[in-house]
Amino acid sequence: MTEQDIQNQIMLALSKHGAVFRTNAGDYWQGERVFSQEFKQQVLINLRKVSGLPRGFTDLLVICNGGMAAFIEVKTKTGRPTPEQLNFIEQMKSRGCKAGVARSPEDAIKIILED
Fold first, then answer.
1. Are the C-beta atoms of 91 and 55 separated by less than 8 Å?
2. Which end of the chain is more exposed for a tag (fewer CB within 10 A), N or C?
3. Closest Cα partner for 77 from 40, 106, 49, 48?
4. Global pTM?
5. Phi/psi at 84 (nearest 5 deg)?
6. DSSP conformation class of 76
């Protein structure tokens, strides 16, 4: 099962407990989409670099029913979080938020329900 498959299952399971948002961290490029005759496909022109959320930000942000924020990093059974992701999770926990790594919907629910 891919990380995307697991993430979709987790998002569905968590939707019963609050609002779930998929996040994107790091830098990416934006531009105007036009059709290229040379490449026979859509391309971006007038590119500009955009900085998204900080490196290490979790895959999912959950605003739980009742207002608590939770941060879920999704990994496969063998996937390993980066040092930046682990640091982000610890920073959020130190601020009183729920946060952790989930490899299944059950893991994610445990993170948001733990005391």
1. no
2. C
3. 106
4. 0.83
5. -65, -40
6. -
